[in-house]
Amino acid sequence: MSGQAEKHEFQSEAKQVLELMIHSVYSNPDIFLRELISNASDALDKLRIESLSDETLGYAQGEGKITVRLDPEKRALTVSDNGIGMSRDELISFLGTIAKSGTREFIAAMNEARGNGDLIGQFGVGFYSSFIVAGRVTVDTRKAGTEESWLWDSSGDGTFSIEPGSRDTGGTDVTLYIKERGKDDEDSPSEIKNYLSRWTLREIIKKYSDFVSYPIYLEDSSEKKDAEDAKDEPVNSMKALWIRAESDVSDDEYNEFYKHITHDWEDPMERIVYRAEGTNEFHALLYIPSRPPLDLFYREGAHGIELYIRRVFIMNDCRDLMPEYLRFVRGVVDSEDLPLNVSREILQQDSMTAMIKRGIVRKVLDTLKRMKSDRAEDYKKFWGMFGEVLKEGIVSDIKNRDAIMKLALFEASRSGETSLEDYVAGMKEGQKSIYYIAGGKSETLSNSPKLEAFSERGIDVLLLSNPIDEIWVSAVREFDSHQFASASSADVEIEGGEPSRKDGVSDEEGNDSLVSRVKESLKNIEGFADVEDVKLSSRLVGSPATFVQKGEPISPQMRNFFRSMGQNTPPERRVLEINALHPLVKKISQSDWTDEASKDWTVLLAGLASISDGEPVRNAAAFTSTLEKLLEDR
Ligand code: ADP
Prior knowledge:
The protein is α+β, with helices and mostly antiparallel strands.
């Protein structure tokens, strides 16, 4: 290292990722080359796109290329490109830090699953994967349009150095000093091949990077200049996969392309090859991943697909072509008709964009429909990973609402996992509504006293445990002409099925006065001002009491959610329902009703109702002291 070299520390998260790279066991170390070639190809794309608005960058169409250069004597492997390059500041920030959202979560997950190299694929560490095979990496780079070149140098030990580099044209040389197995690193994974063999490299490039749209040349400094195919013939075919007939492309090729664009290490779950003809012609090659990306719920995460126009890469993360609720779909759209100089702003307003979007959304939904009917097990897995995202479409995509609702799976009190169509098919005679209960975990919901009368009659109830469910269910209101009805609503009518006992218990002796006394007492107990009414219940079987809601049902969870967002919700209007047939209630009803006893019984019933609803007891102090008092009297 020369005297001018300046030492820098990696950002702590980058350091941790590097450590994981160096010490974990990898299922496939070959991918480092794919990552470096992808970065080179991105750098060439960037230069081409920036040259459109800046002629001084001196990009000439057709000159972009990638060279993989071997120097077996020095154990050096260089991936060189004449792309955009990096300035000194960029070099320090791009290769010394990790800006990706989800990094912290990724590191935590990796630490928990030590040795599970497959997790790395979820993250896509790109450049750092060089350290799987190399003990030292240097990056010599010059930003296009500038006069300075900089050399980044690191042995992956927590620091890197920066000093003047030696490139005299724009672009980047990434040089890996390949570890010698057993010598440089005792833990060096046994899968490491001889990456200094021309033959091995050719195989890897053909396998992983054949479709890269710039020529990739392979050079070996130990061979003579005029040696067989040296330099002249690119190793890759550069054929755009999405243009080729599906029958001409192998599954392996499709899967490698998926990994190229996503940095995932695992094959996708499903692929969609689509060609639209007519006035708005385009090709699409789309994939559904076999696991969720870490940034699925980050709004600023890398969502959307890559846009090409007549085989030329235009932009990635193109959100205008795919709605938010399908943000897990990855892939490429190649338009024949959009203008090459299209910008994000133009895309947003372009009617052609909207048409492409409509076309691919329909295609994705059709594919999911087919998967649901033909590959139920895979579909369940898909739903478990992406269902929550897809459900957003019920609210946001009114045109496709029906199709999305048919794709949705739900937990139900009797049938376990069900779809809405299956639910409707299994409805009881006389049942017109689709019953649901919302708010809270599905286990809590399934034990709710509000479901007792439904269970008794053999009526299934959807357990809507996700906050998004309450949003769509209040927006949609019906499916297949059946209204959604909340089991928590004070006015729900239970249609169909036979109860095991008679409803309408108000005529029993003493019950009317029980109701009026409880109602009277509640007025004087703190925390129950919102209770509008007290009634005898026809829905309870095994529980003494429950709170139901009048008007538009909003679960307590949803209320808290809205409150935390600083939004107002309509005032709560609760009704306390009491089960006159319950032994405890019977005992209470027949006991002496002094003022003090009234208060105690009321506190007890209201508290029990809250507990069995899975909610906190609002007057916890009064409840516990009453309970203690009653137990002492025994
Ligand atoms: P990713 O490619 O996923 O962003 P990397 O760690 O592979 O992550 O690279 C980090 C950044 O470094 C890239 O986003 C890019 O800006 C820059 N970079 C890497 N390789 C090159 C290259 N060959 N030419 C120019 N910039 C590069």
